[in-house]
Write a structure and sequence with these properties.
The chain is α/β, with parallel strands linked by helices and 233 residues long. It has two domains: 154 residues, Rossmann fold (3-Layer(aba) Sandwich); 60 residues. The protein is built from nine helices and ten strands.
Length: 233
């Protein structure tokens, strides 16, 4: 479903991602692990058209989306949940969710999608008319995930969704991600948490200093191997 081929991304003269290549089969969960500054978020932003790719290619459903405008990528069925539970703080929960349905592929099923999001996250229905900026970090993260689901995606990229959240909230959010994947949505998770990634993903990629230094099935890689790659030992 997603193919990244030898992608290089720079911030001015600084190379943040070097020759990164990944393949994500349809309906799977793939995890990209790495410490702060490893290049994970930069790679996700590049796939989604936010960061410019200097060389290399990205294909979604066999169509070249390299440096395509982000809104066009979303309309093709690829959504992104950035780190930090970003919401439009002055808008209500419902208004934030509705924003996600403005793409051509999603407009017709807006109410059905909203009902589905409320089923996944009942708390969002309870707080539908509350300003999103008044919510807790975990609740804002749920809004961000719900907004991505409103676009009727075939694939969602999640960037460090557990960052700064309590363990009980993380457990609940990861349970919902499993549900989303079970419905046929392909998932890419960017994480720092090795144990969480091994638990949920079928395939693991470890990034270090902008490059992918270890790849394999989560069932075949040991936690020790992943940690050594993670720290560059």
């Amino acid at each position: 479903m997603l193919r990244v081929e030898s992608v290089d991304v720079f911030y001015n003269d600084f190379q943040a991602v070097s020759a990164a290549s990944i393949e994500v089969p349809q309906k799977t969960i793939l995890s990209i692990i790495g410490s702060n500054g490893a290049g994970k978020s930069t790679l996700m932003n590049a796939i989604c058209g936010i960061n410019k790719i200097r060389s290399g290619k990205v294909f979604f459903k066999d169509e070249d989306i390299t440096n395509m405008l982000p809104n066009k990528i979303v309309d093709m069925g690829l959504s992104f949940v950035p780190e930090g539970g970003r919401v439009f703080s002055r808008m209500t929960v419902r208004e934030n969710l509705i924003v996600g349905s403005y793409t051509k592929r999603a407009r017709a099923n807006k109410e059905k999608a909203l009902s589905h999001v409320y089923d996944l996250f009942p708390m969002l229905k309870e707080k539908a008319n509350q300003a999103s900026g008044e919510l807790s970090g975990g609740q804002r993260q749920m809004v961000a995930i719900g907004r991505a689901l409103m676009s009727n995606p075939e694939m969602i990229l999640f960037d460090e969704i557990s960052l700064g959240l309590a363990p009980t909230i993380i457990k609940d959010i990861y349970a919902r991600i499993r549900d989303i994947n079970a419905e046929g949505v392909t998932v890419v998770l960017v994480e720092q948490d090795v144990k969480q990634s091994i638990k949920i993903a079928e395939t693991i990629h470890v990034m270090l200093k902008g490059s992918i230094c270890l790849s394999g099935a989560s069932s075949a890689l040991t936690e020790d191997e992943i940690k050594k790659a993670y720290f560059g030992i």
